[in-house]
Amino acid sequence: MARTALSGRLNWRVARLAGVREETSSARTLVLDVPGWPGHLAGQHADVRLTAEDGYTAQRSYSLASASGGERIELTVQRVGDGEVSPYLTEVFTVGDPVEVRGPIGGWFVWRPTDPAPVLLVAGGSGIVPLMAMIRTRRAEGARTPFRLVYSVRSPEERYYAGELRDAALSGVEVSYVYTRSAPDGFSRAPARIGVADVNSGGWPASFEPACFVCGPTGFVEAVADMLLALGHDPRRVKTERFGPTG
User: Residue ranges of the FAD-binding FR-type domain (predicted)?
Assistant: First the structure.
């Protein structure tokens, strides 16, 4: 699978939008049919390219949200108000429309079902996307690998995949939330930024030697990585993925 996935990364393919799901008021999951897609690993990403009538092109990288396998992929796109690509993908792009896709890309920030180590996923906002691909791959492969997810978001309304994460919790993935602006009624933790206590209580002890994946804005990722190191986790087992304002 790894060799197949990496071999297709430089080829642009014409994909067509097969369906959409609204995740939040500003985020949309795109279900794309990509003939010839070579397969991918959980955690990889793809490039999307738009071409205007005058020949001008713009491209952005988006994490793959879907489990590996087949010629259908999913990308979850957060709309950026002054962006060149995300407003089109979240507001204009219609079922049946074409778009160019290249990938999969990346071979370090990936999880393979053959790895028996416990997994700790820590997501900040839309950083949940590649981590969701790992959760979906675990389910698709029937893996029993212990998974824990700590998901930090501003408010309940900004959670991606809310229903699916409830189902994941029923199938062995332990999910805990950190709300930074507003929390649901009766939630035990007051809204605040993620802290060492959240990572410690929602994660695995360092002695378990878990594979740790952290994804989100740069400041979030740096803070969480420092917390994991302070808790004694092996830096070689802490993998990070950061994104900027243009996604």
Answer: 10-111
- Position 177, amino acid: Y
pLDDT band at 155 (very low <50, low <70, confident <90, very high): very high
- Residue 219: phi and psi, rounded to 5, are -60, -40
Q: Is pTM, for the whole model, over 0.85?
A: yes
Q: Is pLDDT of 170 > 70? A: yes
Q: What is the pLDDT of residue 69?
A: 81
- Name the CATH code of domain 2-105 (choices 1.20.140.10, 2.40.30.10, 3.50.50.60, 3.40.50.300): 2.40.30.10
Q: How far is the C-alpha of 97 from the C-alpha of 48, rounded, in Å?
A: 13
Identity at 13, one-letter amino acid code: R
Question: What is the CA 166 to chain-centroid distance, rounded?
Answer: 17
The rounded distance, in Å, linking the Cα atoms of 170 and 160 is 17
